[in-house]
Structure formats: structure tokens, C-alpha cells
Design brief:
The structure holds two protein chains of two kinds.
Chain A (H helix, E strand, L loop, with lengths): L13 E9 L5 H12 L1 H4 L7 E8 L2 E9 L10 H5 L4 E7 L3 H18 L4 E7 L11 H10 L3 E4 L8 H27 L3 H30 L1
Parallel strand pairs in A: 1-3, 1-4, 4-5, 5-6
Antiparallel strand pairs in A: 2-3
Chain B lengths: L1 H4 L7 H4 L18 H14 L2 H19 L8 H13 L2 H10 L3 H14 L1 H9 L1 H6 L2 H21 L5 H21 L8 H18 L1 H4 L7 H14 L17 H16 L6 H23 L5 H15 L4 H11 L2 H4 L2 H18 L10 H9 L8 H68 L1 H5 L2 H4 L3 H13 L3 H13 L1 H15 L5 H8 L2 H14 L4 H19 L4 H17 L1 H17 L1 H9 L5 H7 L2 H17 L3 H23 L1 H21 L1
């Protein structure tokens, strides 16, 4: 419920928050940089940081603002995950196809996300470093099967060769739009309100979400860790 | 305390209980419910009623309705209210009484609001900052915004003491949403661009929060303060943690990085002094940007979250910001949620929350340390070798070192340039020396040629015949005066004088020279004047002075000729030749002439007068002679002055000349003092005269 907050901005465009999760050194930052860099090469690559990036895309006539948040992948920061993925609409779980452990890590993340956010969040599992296909340690079949079992979409990407990244983000955006529309529909149906009142209802829901987020920041974090 | 103030407000305890009967105390402001039940009630009410705008009206209605039932109680001071709230937490039974009264002090709240909005200079600044924005929107929009601000302020003030800060936060967040929706829906905002709408939203948030900062920041009803203290202590305990512990790639020894660390720390500390949540957020953003800058310096590329979070933790640990928890909570509660959950500020703030959470739950494992070591460090028993302080000191030391190195470099450069200059000078001096030696050699090669012809008096002697006339006039003078010689001889002398006026002027020196030999001058001159001495004198002359060597060569050679002629004085023939020499040589050689003429011309002017008396008063006898004799010292004095003229330039030569002068002086003094010497002189002169006579 909380994750839907801010999905639809007042102007009608979608604002989505996407977190990149995964073990350190699987290439989260590279994936993100590659995605933002390719389209706005001259604009964005000069930025001094590669941990938070905004991207505006147009998908089927709908304006989408993607806020992509990179997370620290070190094991010792794992406990901070909830603070990062709180209120996010989508998560990209990145693993290294040459590293079996990183895939296990993805599984952990999925479990945690399901537990904390339910099915509200759109999940993408990305097997990165496709350019190192010869050293593959995670079989394609395993990965695809697992992704399907948790309702996630699996992608093979290579930040180095710029493969599959654009498609992955587009797919995720599409899914998030669908999810947002579903949510709005559900809410409208359950409350049986007209468009104008629904807006007010959304306001109330937001308040709840904020209250929750507050507890998440102060108390929730400590419990999670 | 409160009861004494308002004793009439005492009511039954049963009336104070929650309407729900949950056992907690209720509150009139909460419609008789306790806080929990009231919250639930409100939620239900809201769902029943239609939405935010009406919800706001509901608030307004409450506000108006309360006004009628309220008894005015004058608690306008904020401190008192704070205390009340603190006591509220302790749930004293008496407090419920007070609460009832405090709930009905709306008029004072309005005053308070007025006070708050007037007092804060930040508000004025804020108004100025947004002046441009408001000049671009229509009047109706301005009014609407003002109305919203006032209504929110009133609402918050009304509820400030009554509901928990979470509920206040809810009210505020709800208000932001309502305002956003209103801007979207209302006609008066139709021509306002999306960007300006966002700015208006920011303005409302900043204005209201700046106004209500004192009430909403770290309210006493929460445990924020204790949390602040605990995190502060925690960070203080962790002061030994350094960048290595956190796997943080901060190059602390680099001065630029160090500066950025300081900037980031001061930005982080600045968060506490900002009032509006967005301003606090901006402080965090600035801090984080600086961290990225310093990471860029250390890592050499855009830093990822893997590097950023440890660095942020490090900065937070080193900054130990005041009231960290209160600030974070304040921002979380009252910053527009849409701002906080997206955008750069949101991301950085989330990271800050992560950093704080990490610090709170930090273990030995998260620092890659052994548990015992961690415990020791935490208890302060052992300080790791490289704490932040020592690093700072190192940094300072490095700074100093670099400064001094730079200074040394500068000094070295200056020294080397100095050495270069010195060697250059040395070379120049060598060159100069060799040049001089060459010149001297050249001069030496030249000088013998010039000296030798002049050294030979014999050549000049051979010229005798032309100068024959000169010696004659002098001799008769003396003889005529003193010995009473025949007039004829005197006349003879006078006639020669008339014939050769030049020679008359030049006679006196000749007199001196001619006189000096008998007094033993020749001996000393013999000793002194050797060719070597002359050479030395010439050398020194040419060395020191720019004057052409010829001048002095001649000058000296003149002296030498004089001397040399003095040597020859004993014999009358040679004496005569010696006397003739200067007279002859002077006209021919210009330079000698210039020197000797200047010296002799005054004497030449003086001399005729002694001579004239000789002619007129021949028979005056000894007295006249006595008068006349001093004319000799006058001459000698002049020769002396001549000597001093040259003495300035010719040292060795002057010594020779001075000897001559002194001896001449002594001659003069002798001549003055004793008549005997005069007599002898006269005798000699007469002798000379006779020889001349014989010659003629």
C-alpha cells in the first residue's frame, strides 16, 4: 500500500521510484549508468555521482519519471535495505551470472521484499555481465524458473556491451504503470467513489503511508536490523 | 500551580475519562476521547465525510465552535506551554483539568501566531526570496496562498498541545496534499505553470514551518531529545572509528579532500540551524554533494552507492550533528512527503537515515573488527592507532610540511640564483682582472718607450743654446742686491728679462731647484728616484686612472728630469742645463705645460714684484734682502701645492715630490731664520753668477 504513494503526480505523469538491489560488485551502478548515460550522454554522465539518477521517459503517451536509487551492496549494509526500498514502486535485483552467491543473494532480497512490501512492488531480476557468458555459473533455466516462481521478470543484461538494459527498464516501467492503474482501479472500486472523491481518498491513504514511513525510519529500521 | 490559577475549572474525575471507556483520560479537545480513541474516531469521521477540503472546513468549524465555549485563559508564553506539555506526559490527574482550560485559549493562540509570524526575521527573508514568484502570479492566487497559510497555522496552533506530533504531522501532510490538489483543481491556479505550483507549495511549507518551528521541532511530547542524546553519546563513543574501519575510500592526507570533508561536516552541522524542513533537506543535499566531490577526488570517477554510504557514515560520525534525531524526525514528519520520497533530496535523506541506523546498530562485525577489540575501543581502553584526531594532526603536519617545503624550494631557488649571480660576478671579475692585466701589460710595453727619451737629460742639454738667455737674468738679481755688483750686470739681467718675459716667470722654480742641491737634496733624490720606482708609479697611475698614461709619464718624467738634473746640480754646467730643461720642454709638451703652468703662473705673477724692488732699491741692504728672501718660501709653497695636486693621483711619485718639497721648505726656513745660510747662499749664488759671467 505504501509503495503506491506518489505514483501519480498531480500533473498526470507517473513518478516511480526504482531501487537497485544486489550484492556488491555485480554491476548495479554500471547498469544504472549505462541506462541513463546512453540517452542523455552529454547531460548526465558528467554528474559526479552515480548513485541517484532521474530519468524521464515517455511510454505509450504516458510520461514517466523514474527515480533510480542505487544501494550500497556490502553485506554489512544489508540491514539498511528497508530504508532504501521503502515506498519504491519497482526493484531491480541484479546478480552476476558468473557468481552463484550473488544469485542466492537475489533470492534473499526477493523474500525480504515480498515480506516487507507484499506484491505491491514490481520485481525484475537481472543477470548482469552477459559478456562473460563463458564463465557463467548460474544457469539460464534456473534463473528463469525462479523469476517466474516469484512473479518477476528475468533479464540478461550487459552493462559493458549495453545489452538488455533499455528493454529491462522499459518493461519495468510498463509493469509499474499497470500496477499503479490496477491499484487505482481497486481503490476506486472498493470505495465506490467518483474520480473527484477518489482523489481525496488518495490523500487519506497518503497520510497513512507517511505515518508508516515515519515509524519505518525511526523504529522500523532498528527492528529490521 | 495550575489549579490556583484557575480553581473554578475543577471537575469530576469521571468526566475526564475517555468516552469510549477505555480507562484513559479523555480530553475536551478530543471530544471527550483519549488520544487513541480520538484518532480512530477522526479516521472514521474523515472517511464518512468527503475529503480534504471539507476536512479543512471541519477543522475551521471546530475552531469557530470552540470559540464560544472557551473561557479566556492567558497562557501566551511558549515556555509555560512547553512545561505543560511535559507534564501532560506524566499524566497527572490535575493536568486534565488544565488541559481543559488550555484547550480554550484560542484568542491567545491567535496572538501567539501573530507573535510568531512577527518575530521571525526568517519569514521576512522568505517573503523576499519568493517575492519574484508572487509578482508573477495573480492577486487571487496570492490571497489563496495566504489564506491557506493562515488556516494551517491556526490549525496547528490549535492542535499543538493536544495531539501527538504524529497527528500534527498527519495534519500537515494532509494539508500539503490538499493544497496541491487545490492548485490542480481551482480555476485561479489555471494559468500557473507546474513549476510555479511546486514553488508555491514549497513556499507554503517553508512559511508555515518557519513560523511553527519552535512548536513542531523536537516537541517535548516526544522522546526525540533522549534519542538525540543517545545517538550523540553513541557517536562520541565511536570517535575512534576511521575511514579504514568503514572501508571508506577517503584520502585523508590529500588537502583538497580534507577541505571537502570539513565542508561536508559543516553542511551537516548546518542542518540544525535551518528551520524549514526543506532547508534542512538542502543542507543534507549540500553535504552529500560534497561527499561525492571528495569521493571523486579519492576514487577518480563518479562514486556509486557502495562508496557513498560509508563516506556518509564517516561524515556523520565525525560531524556528530546536534539534535540529529530531532532533525531527522522533524524533516520526516513535516517535509512534504512527495519531496522526501523522490528526487535527490529524498535519496540523500534516505541515505542519512541509513547512516544513522547503521551507527545505532553498529557492531564489531560491521567494522571488520574482533569483538574484544571493538569492546575495548568502545570502552575507551584502547584507542586505535590512527584515530581521526591523529589523522587530523597528521594532516595539519602535512600541511605545515608542504608549506615549509614550498618555502625551502623558494629559498633554494633564490640561493641558486644568488650563486649564479655570484659566479657571474666572479667571472666578470676574472675577466676584468685579465683585462686589466692585459692593459697593464700593454701599458708596460708602451711606457718604457715614453720614459726613456725623457730620462735622458743629455738630449735636452744639447738644446742649451736656444735657452742660454734664461739663466742669466736670475744670477745678476741676487748678486746685484746683496753684493752690490755693477749696475751693468743688473741692467744686463733686466734687459734679458725684457727680452724674454716668459723666462722671468719660470725663473723662481729654477731658483729653488738650483738652490736645493747644496742643501743635500740630491742624496735623498738619488735614493728615491730609481727607474723602477718610476715604473711603479706609472703602473699605478695607469691602473687606477682613466687618464692616459702619457700624461703621467711625462709628468713623472718631468720630475725625474728635475731630479735627475738635481743629481747633476753640483757641477755648474749640468745645473745650468737642468735649469734650461724645464723651460725648453714645457712649451713643446702640452700636458706638462698644463700642469706646470698652472702651478707656476701664480708664482710667475708674484715673482716680478720681488724682482722690481731689486731693480729700484738696489741699495736697501740686508733689510731689503730680508724682505725679499721670503719670496722663496712662497715659491716652495707653490711647488708644494703643485706636489699636492699631483699627490692625489700619484702616490709613489708624490712621496718623491714631497721629499723635494720638504727639503725645499727646510731650505726656506733655514734661509729665513739664519743669516748665515743666506750668506752662504749668496756666496753660492755669486759663485754661480761668476760662472755665468764667465760663460757670457
Amino acid at each position: 500500500m505504501a509503495s503506491t504513494t506518489g505514483t501519480v503526480s498531480s500533473s498526470g505523469s507517473y513518478n516511480f521510484k526504482v531501487v537497485l538491489l544486489g550484492e556488491g560488485c555485480v554491476g548495479k551502478t554500471s547498469v544504472m549508468l549505462r541506462y541513463v548515460e546512453d540517452k542523455f550522454n552529454e547531460k548526465h554522465i558528467t554528474t559526479l555521482q552515480a548513485s541517484f539518477l532521474n530519468k524521464k521517459i515517455n511510454l505509450g503517451g504516458k510520461r514517466v519519471n523514474l527515480s533510480i536509487w542505487d544501494t550500497a551492496g556490502q553485506e554489512k549494509f544489508h540491514a539498511l535495505g528497508p530504508i532504501y526500498y521503502r515506498m519504491s514502486n519497482g526493484a531491480i535485483l541484479v546478480y552476476d551470472i558468473t557468481d552463484e552467491d550473488s544469485f542466492q543473494k537475489v533470492k534473499n532480497w526477493v523474500k525480504e521484499l515480498k515480506k516487507m512490501l507484499g506484491s505491491e512492488i514490481c520485481l525484475i531480476i537481472a543477470g548482469n555481465k552477459l559478456d562473460l557468458e563463458k564463465q557463467r555459473n548460474v544457469s539460464v533455466q534456473d534463473a528463469e524458473e525462479y523469476a517466474n516462481s516469484v512473479g518477476a521478470k528475468h533479464f540478461h543484461t550487459s552493462a559493458k556491451l549495453n545489452q538488455g538494459i533499455e528493454e529491462m527498464f522499459l518493461e519495468l516501467s510498463q509493469r509499474m504503470i499497470e500496477r499503479a492503474q490496477e491499484n487505482n482501479q481497486q481503490r476506486a472500486n472498493s470505495l465506490g467513489r467518483s474520480g473527484s472523491t477518489r482523489r481525496n481518498v488518495v490523500v487519506v491513504e497518503d497520510e497513512d503511508a507517511i505515518a508508516q514511513s515515519k515509524s519505518g525510519c525511526c523504529g522500523g529500521v532498528s527492528t529490521a536490523s | 500551580m495550575y489549579s490556583t490559577k484557575n480553581p473554578s475549572l475543577r471537575i469530576n474525575e469521571a468526566d475526564l475519562k475517555c468516552k469510549n471507556g477505555c480507562g484513559y483520560y479523555g480530553n475536551a479537545e478530543w471530544e471527550g476521547y483519549c488520544s487513541k480513541c480520538h484518532h480512530e474516531h477522526i479516521q472514521r469521521e474523515r472517511i464518512k465525510k468527503s475529503g480534504g477540503l471539507r476536512g479543512l472546513d471541519h477543522g475551521e468549524r471546530d475552531f469557530v465552535g470552540d470559540k464560544h465555549t472557551r473561557s479566556p485563559v492567558g497562557f501566551s508564553k511558549f515556555e509555560e506551554k512547553k512545561r505543560q506539555q511535559a507534564e501532560k506526559k506524566t499524566k497527572l490527574p490535575k493536568l486534565s483539568v488544565f488541559r481543559k482550560s488550555s484547550s480554550s485559549k484560542d484568542s491567545s493562540r491567535a496572538e501567539q501566531f501573530q507573535e510568531l509570524s512577527n518575530a521571525a526575521p526568517e519569514l521576512e527573508k522568505l517573503k523576499q526570496d519568493y517575492h519574484d514568484l508572487f509578482s508573477l502570479v495573480s492577486q487571487s492566487v496570492q490571497h489563496d496562498v495566504c489564506r491557506f497559510i493562515t488556516s494551517l497555522n491556526t490549525k496547528i496552533l490549535k492542535n499543538a498541545d493536544l495531539v501527538s506530533v504524529e497527528e500534527l504531522s498527519e495534519i500537515v501532510q494532509n494539508f500539503y496534499q490538499v493544497f496541491a490538489k487545490r492548485m490542480e483543481a481551482n480555476v485561479i491556479y489555471a494559468d500557473v505553470s507546474q513549476e510555479k505550483k511546486e514553488m508555491l507549495l514549497d513556499y507554503v511549507e517553508k512559511y508555515v514551518m518557519t513560523c511553527l518551528y519552535t512548536i513542531l521541532f523536537c516537541p517535548p511530547s516526544t522522546a526525540d531529545e533522549e534519542k538525540d542524546l543517545s545517538i550523540q553519546n553513541r557517536i562520541r563513543q565511536l570517535n575512534w572509528v576511521n575511514a579504514q574501519h568503514l572501508d571508506c575510500r577517503i584520502n585523508e592526507t590529500k588537502s583538497e579532500v580534507c577541505d571537502l570533508v570539513y565542508t561536508a561536516i559543516s553542511d551537516m552541522l548546518g542542518m540544525d540551524s535551518a528551520k524549514a524542513p526543506q532547508d534542512k533537506l538542502n543542507c543534507v543535499v549540500r553535504c552529500c554533494r560534497n561527499i561525492f566531490l571528495l569521493l571523486q577526488q579519492s576514487v577518480g570517477g563518479p562514486a556509486s552507492a557502495d562508496e557513498f554510504l560509508p563516506a556518509l557514515i564517516f561524515i556523520v560520525l565525525k560531524a556528530n550533528p546536534a539534535r540529529l534525531k530531532s532533525n531527522i524526525n522533524y524533516v520526516t514528519r513535516f517535509c512534504n512527503a512527495s519531496r522526501l520520497m523522490s528526487g535527490e533530496g529524498g535519496y540523500y535523506f534516505t541515505n542519512l537515515c541509513c547512516a544513522v541506523s547503521f551507527i545505532e546498530n553498529l557492531t564489531a562485525e560491521s567494522l571488520n573488527m574482533a569483538v574484544e577489540e571493538f569492546e575495548q575501543c568502545m570502552s575507551g581502553e584502547v584507542a586505535p592507532p590512527s584515530t581521526w584526531e591523529s589523522t587530523l594532526m597528521m594532516c595539519e603536519g602535512m600541511h605545515l610540511m608542504y608549506e615549509q617545503l614550498a618555502m625551502l624550494e623558494d629559498m633554494h631557488n633564490r640561493y641558486s640564483s644568488f650563486v649564479d649571480g655570484a659566479s657571474g660576478l666572479k667571472e666578470e671579475m676574472h675577466k676584468f682582472k685579465s683585462d686589466i692585466t692585459k692593459e697593464v701589460a700593454l701599458v708596460l710595453a708602451r711606457t718604457p718607450l715614453t720614459i726613456q727619451p725623457k730620462k735622458a737629460p743629455t738630449d735636452i742639454d744639447s738644446e742649451n743654446p736656444s735657452c742660454e738667455a734664461l739663466p742669466a737674468p736670475i744670477v745678476p738679481q741676487v748678486v746685484a742686491r746683496q753684493l752690490g755688483l755693477e749696475l751693468a750686470t743688473v741692467k744686463k739681467i733686466e734687459s734679458t728679462k725684457d727680452l724674454q718675459p716668459d723666462s722671468r716667470a719660470s725663473t723662481p722654480p729654477r731658483d729653488c731647484f738650483s738652490m736645493s742641491p747644496p742643501f743635500g737634496l740630491n742624496r735623498s733624490l738619488d735614493e728615491l728616484i730609481t727607474p723602477d720606482d718610476i715604473f711603479a708609479a706609472q703602473e699605478s697611475l695607469s691602473f687606477v686612472q682613466e687618464l692616459t698614461s702619457v700624461n703621467y709619464d711625462i709628468d713623472l718624467s718631468d720630475l725625474s728630469t728635475e731630479n735627475s738634473y738635481a743629481e747633476d746640480v753640483p757641477t755648474a754646467d749640468e745645473l745650468r742645463g737642468g735649469v734650461v730643461l724645464p723651460l725648453e720642454t714645457r712649451p713643446t709638451e702640452d700636458l706638462t705645460q698644463s700642469l706646470l703652468d698652472t702651478a707656476e703662473s701664480p708664482t710667475g705673477g708674484l715673482l716680478p714684484s720681488p724682482i722690481k724692488p731689486v731693480c729700484t732699491g738696489e741699495y736697501q741692504g740686508f733689510a731689503a734682502q730680508g724682505c725679499q728672501i721670503p719670496s722663496i718660501p712662497c715659491d716652495t709653497g707653490d711647488t708644494q701645492s703643485l706636489k699636492f695636486d699631483t699627490c692625489g693621483t700619484v702616490d709613489p711619485g708624490s712621496s718623491q715630490v714631497s721629499v723635494v718639497g720638504e727639503t725645499v721648505d727646510s731650505v726656506a726656513s733655514d734661509g729665513r731664520s739664519g743669516n748665515k745660510t743666506e750668506e752662504t747662499l749668496v756666496q753660492i749664488l755669486s759663485g754661480i753668477m761668476t760662472t755665468f759671467d764667465t760663460l757670457f
